[in-house]
Design a protein that fits this description.
This protein has a single domain, classed as Rossmann fold (3-Layer(aba) Sandwich). It has four helices and eight strands, in the order E-H-E-H-E-E-H-E-E-E-H-E. Helix 2 links the parallel strand 2 and strand 3. The longest helix has 18 residues.
Length: about 180
Amino acid sequence: MQMREKTQVMTAEDIRRAVVRISHEILERSHQEIAELAIIGVKSRGDHLARRIAENLERTEGIQVPVGVVDVRLYRDDVNLYDETIKANLTEIPFDPTGKRVILVDEVLYTGRTVRAAMDAVMDFGRPAAIQLAVLIDRGHRELPIAADYTGKNIPTSRKEIVRVQLVEEDGVDQATIYEEDDS
């Protein structure tokens, strides 16, 4: 299936503003429980956004929030639907999430299956007091009853479209673009 670029929906500045806004919202909702806060990014790209949020919290409030990374590939419920070898990437949660308020961070929220897999992975490391979700983009089309607590931008899409987030850490540029099937 060929895909063609349809439209850019977030620039580098849009992404920067969204991450700063999410960081401030987390602070506002965590005022009393800031010491129990932890951030875990979903590999790959959610982990970079998680680090950016943690850096904003440190810069703004002078607090260091523990940051982890979770690879959900082995937790996905569709792992056997594809003819490909699944390789586990890196899951690194260098703290005990038990009793913490964990903010899961991902770049795009779509069906909710990645988030469910991430929650399962986190629970293998301990029992958080709460898990909240921060996403850069919510594109709709949920298959599971999952909603983001913190959203950078809502972008309605069709199921035939793909939202691709590129980040400097992986791609050399910050931007989000919608692609669609090329029928030509």
